[in-house]
């Protein structure tokens, strides 16, 4: 699959690297230095240069992509969307949380979410909210542990069935057990939940390499 990474920071850089290692073709874009994007692509190819990764502009990343991962601060949505060009019909996976500029608190919730606000800006794209409920620090560990039993859960939501199926595949590729939380408006619940996970990861005693697992009991 071709995946355009728009926002190549902690989340986009790591997820893009994992997608490339899992066999996808990845284009890294949107960082403040081209050198960084270049290095990320090089690193994502791995030692054997097996992975397919390159860098480009957001427009190049989105152009032929089967899925676009939008991994930017939500206050950068307008800038990034302008640079990415027409995303009509595209599967856009967002991990963004609606934080203030200082990243200290959520600024919307209950009646909307970052994912829904994004979807309003690109109504012809098919937005899925995923990967936002885990810290970037745990991603490589989850990938390394993907063959072990008891995979961690990862909640995701969206309104379009086929784009959710595509996202499910990527979530599995990273090493998570996907949990369909329902339509995109459920991001109003998953986004604050991400802050709980963040609290435990960054303020808890065990360190930030934290994921979670839901278990059902009874019938
Ligand atoms: N980090 C986490 O653990 C985590 C977990 C869950 C959800 N999230 C959410 O995921 C999203 C991304 O988070 P992140 O931690 O990956 O953020 P980040 O590390 O700051 O990455 C953001 C990316 O956007 C780029 N960028 C910012 N301003 C730019 C500009 N003016 N021009 C060009 N590029 C620009 C950054 O460039 P540089 O590389 O040059 O800085 C970086 O590549 C956020 O909405 C966050 O709420 C993060």
Q: Which descriptors apply to this entry?
A:
8 helices; eight-stranded mixed β-sheet; binds NADP nicotinamide-adenine-dinucleotide phosphate; alpha/beta; globular; 16% strand; 219 residues
State the gist of this model.
By secondary structure, the protein is α/β, with parallel strands linked by helices. Helix content is about 40%, strand content about 15%.
Q: In this structure, how is the largest beta sheet organized?
A: 8 strands, mixed
Distance between the termini: 37 Å
The tally of beta strands, per DSSP, is 8
Poorly predicted runs of 5 or more residues: none
The largest sheet has its strands arranged as: 3-2-1-4-5-6-7-8
Report the sheet-strand fraction: 15-25%
| Bound ligand species | NADP nicotinamide-adenine-dinucleotide phosphate
SSE class: alpha/beta
- Radius of gyration, in angstroms, nearest whole number: 16 Å
Query: How many DSSP H or I helices?
Result: 8
* Mean pLDDT over the full residue set: 96
Order of helices and strands: EHEHEHEHEHEHEHEH
The level of helicity is 25-40%
Notes on the structure:
- This protein is an alpha/beta fold.
- The protein contains eight helices and eight strands, in the order βαβαβαβαβαβαβαβα.
- It has helices at residues 10-21, 34-45, 58-63, 77-84, 114-121, 139-144, 161-174, 187-203, and strands at 2-6, 25-29, 52-55, 67-70, 91-94, 126-129, 153-158, 177-180.
- Strands 3-2-1-4-5-6-7-8 form an eight-stranded mixed β-sheet, with helices on both faces.
- The longest helix is centred in the last third of the chain and has 17 residues, at 187-203.
- It is globular and about 45 Å long.
- The model has no long low-confidence stretch (mean pLDDT 96).
- Bound molecules: NADP nicotinamide-adenine-dinucleotide phosphate.
- NADP nicotinamide-adenine-dinucleotide phosphate binds at residues 7-12, 30-33, 36, 71-74, 76, 95-97, 99, 132, 135-136, 194.
